[in-house]
Amino acid sequence: IKSLNLIFENISSTAEIILHLFEFYNTPLNNALKTLFIAAILTDSGFFKHSNNNTIQNVGKLLGNDIEFQDILILLKNEVDISVKIAKIKGLQRLKLIREGEYLIGITSVSSFGSNIASMLIQIGCDVSIVISKEKNQSRINTRARKRVCEETGLNLAKILVQISEQYEGSGGGHDGAASLTINMESDIIINELIENIKEYL
């Protein structure tokens, strides 16, 4: 529901919210569903990079004698498509850096794979990353932040993007270190506002 924003600060993935609903209604899970839930939790939480102890406990409950964790990791490990490689290179070519104290904010734009590029910027050294993707009349913004930065500063990207989405009638969400926003307007004004909101924490 577009008008409804659900924020659970102690939950690291959307999959865990759905899992809790299954548990609340005592719905049994077969091995196929358990495997899907584990895979979804892993990808939602960035393979535990944006997780907490509850996330690991939830995966532990889903694992059993018939499910091998390594098998799920193999299923999720795919060869990088050439279009993703091109997007990464273009993202690096367009990268702009803002230094705020001892922190680096990386901003770039790509036509697709914004989530991948946002994660890549963190891997290469940015403390916070912002990636803009434009499709027709719609703009999508993907953001990432190092866990250490969130812990040191109190930065919560999900809270910032949800607030902006409400202001501009978009849809946004995620968690402290990884969040996204989709909005039906040009992103320039929003990006400036987003950067200023992030700077307040750094």
- Summed over residues and divided by their number, the pLDDT gives a mean of 88
Q: Biggest sheet, in brief? A: 6 strands, mixed
Number of strands: 6
* CATH architecture descriptor text of the largest domain: Roll
Helix content: 40-55%
Order of helices and strands: HHHHHEEHEEHHEEH
Q: What's the number of structural domains? A: 2
CATH class of the largest domain: Alpha Beta
Query: What global shape is seen?
Result: globular
Briefly note the CATH topology name of the largest domain. Answer: Diaminopimelate Epimerase, Chain A, domain 1
Number of helices: 9
| Beta-strand share of residues | 15-25%
In whole angstroms, the N-to-C terminal distance is 33 Å
Report Rg.
18 Å
Walk me through what this model shows.
This protein has helices at 14-24, 31-44, 53-62, 69-76, 82-93, 114-123, 147-153, 157-167, 188-199; strands at residues 96-100, 103-109, 128-135, 138-145, 171-175, 178-183. It is α+β, with helices and mostly antiparallel strands and 202 residues long. It contains nine helices and six strands, in the order H-H-H-H-H-E-E-H-E-E-H-H-E-E-H. Strand 1 and strand 2 (103-109) form a beta hairpin. Strands 1-2-3-4-6-5 form a six-stranded mixed beta sheet, with helices on both faces. The longest helix is centred in the N-terminal third of the chain and has 14 residues, at 31-44. It has two domains: 14-76, no CATH class; 82-199, Diaminopimelate Epimerase, Chain A, domain 1, CATH 3.10.310.40. Helix 5 (82-93) packs across helix 6. The chain is globular.
